Amino acid sequence: MEDIGIPRFGTVKSSSGFFSCKLSSDRIEGDWISGVLSECIHSAMNSLLNRLQHGSYAGFEMSQPDHDTMVGSAVKNCVKYSLTNIKAHLEGQEHPEEYGGKIPDIEAYKNGTKYLIEIEDLESISRSDTIEQLKVFSKGRTSSKFKLIIVVPFSPEKPEKDVKELLSSNGISYDNIWLYFAHSGETIGYPS
Q: Is the separation of the CB atoms in 109 and 84 below 8 Å?
């Protein structure tokens, strides 16, 4: 927890992105309560916006542990929607099969339909090597009869429509985009 000084009102406690307020003062009277709450909310929103813009929620290169966390979250979403024979590119798991010289992050099945699921952060999805990999997967959708799902972190800075435009402008077709929410560790999306 880091202490954040608030002029006139004492100190609040913040725990990196998940914000809670505690006053360091024993005496609270009158307008102090609404003033302190207002300052807490203002500080919390600034902290969250800063993390969204520069921190661990968006616009950053994922570390391998961050990537693995997103893969694990997407696997849970697969289970939630009854996908089976799930193979994930994670240590200790059976890995997906190579397709066109590329290995997807997740391979799963539902009602005889194969799904390839690729996890990207909001920086890597723009890189040429990622675009080429997604093009390989995209081209195989109709000939190999699988569905392509792309998972990206939720971000107000680069909304889902921007990701869709980037994919479309590079000739990449896909079946669905799932969103990963870092604050809850949950991936949201339905296998189309």
A: yes
CA 89 vs. chain centroid, Å, equals: 17
From 55, 53, 92, 54, select the one nearest 71 (Cα to Cα). 92
Cα separations (Å) of 39 from 3, 8, 146? 14, 10, 51
78-126 pLDDT, tens digit each: 999 999 999 999 999 999 999 989 999 999 999 999 999 999 988 889 9
CATH number for 82:
3.40.1350.10
- Segments forming the whole domain that contains residue 43: 2-54
Instruction: Tell whether 91 is covered by a domain.
Output: yes
d(CA 117, CA 73): 12
In a domain, 59, yes or no: no
DSSP letter string, 108-159: EEETTEEEEEEE--TTGGGSHHHHHHHHHHHHHHHHTTEEEEEEEE--SSS-
- pTM metric for this prediction: 0.68
